[in-house]
Amino acid sequence: MKYYILFGPPGAGKGTQAKLIAENFNLMHISTGELLRKEIAEGTELGMVAKHLIEDGHLVPDEMVIGMIQHTFEQHKEVDGFLLDGFPRTIAQAEKLDEMLMQKGEQVNKVLSLIIKDSTIFERISLRAKLEDRKDDANSTIILNRIEAYHKKTEPLIDYYRNKGNYFEIQGEQSIEEVFACICKELE
Question: Over 70: is that where the pLDDT of 16 sits?
Answer without folding.
Answer: yes
